[in-house]
Amino acid sequence: LRDDLFDTAMIAYNLLSPDPENDILPRCLQQNIGVIGMTAVRSALSTNDLLEELIRKAKEEGRINDEAIESQRPLDWILDKDIPTLATAGYSYVLAEPAVCSVLSGTTNPDHLIENIRSALALPLSKEKRQKLQSIFRTPPNYEPWSTYNL
Q: Could you give the strand order of the β-sheet that contains 100-103, starting from the edge strand earlier in sequence?
């Protein structure tokens, strides 16, 4: 970004890893660099057992306050008639960011692709839900950010 050589940037960003909102996404927006969001929906948003394990480990490490989120079905509070699945929540969260112009969706299954498109067209999460996710999942001081590839 400092060299101002690029028109687009592909950035790992999702509702479990909102840290790019602190620095890189605002800089991209300011420099008119389009962001391609990658990792909007990872395994942890598709498989509840993986999500619960991720939350358990994060609580043990002190990354997440024990009272901040339930240990069982930890993100069900996001779901409603407009956001029926966690995959929908993932796409909705990333696509609501002004710097994000596009989001990657990897699949070889046509039905899964249609489901991903429907998710991408969903209404954005409410401001309150978005702020709650940010308060839970932003990397605490003195911690290394976690890799979205492990999610």
A: 8-12, 34-38, 100-103
CB atoms within 10 A of CB 57: 13
Cβ 17 vs Cβ 144: under 8 Å: no
pLDDT (tens digit, 9 = 90+) per residue, 93-141? Answer: 999 999 999 999 888 899 989 988 999 999 999 999 999 999 999 988 8
Q: Residue 37 — φ and ψ, nearest 5°? A: -80, 130
Are 139 and 5 in contact, with CB atoms under 8 Å apart? no
pLDDT for res 132:
96
d(CA 105, CA 37): 9
| Three-class secondary structure assignment of 110-140 | HHHHHHHHHHHCCCCCCHHHHHHHHHHHCCC
Cβ atoms within 10 Å of 101's Cβ, excluding its own: 14
